[in-house]
# Entry
Amino acid sequence: MAYDDQNIFAKILRAEIPCSKVYEDDFALAFHDVNPQAPIHVLVIPKGPYVSMDDFSVNASTEEIAGLFAAVGRVARDLGTIEGGYRILANHGADAHQEVFHFHVHIFAGRDLGAMLPPR
Ligand code: 5GP
# Structure
């Protein structure tokens, strides 16, 4: 799938639509999810145009990959989740119900997050 620069996170990166920002550096932007699934639900996105984890892992530079995942760890720490715990998740494609086609890592925290996957 080709990257569509009209996706909602591309518009957030260009500040065409607002977000509730929690962190930004040269490689990543983190903001609160608009429809939170946990008391803490933050999205961390790379600044580059990558569709999903698959695209990111193949086409991003080592510096971009390191920068994104360092930001994920830092944001989780800054949100005060280390003692209680947190979960990270990234959806790729139809089976995972990916909705926004700009790679993003979800950070969930603030309650017992239950089983890793819902029961079938
Ligand atoms: P996905 O299913 O693609 O992994 O998750 C996309 C996430 O983006 C969803 O959790 C959804 O609530 C969130 N989202 C969709 N549109 C917006 C938006 O305009 N702003 C923010 N902050 N989050 C959004």
About this structure: The CA atoms of residues 83 and 108 lie 14 Å apart. The radius of gyration is 14 Å. The chain is about 25% helix and 20% strand. The pocket of guanosine-5'-monophosphate is lined by residues 8, 19, 31, 33-35, 91, 97-100 (CB under 6 Å).
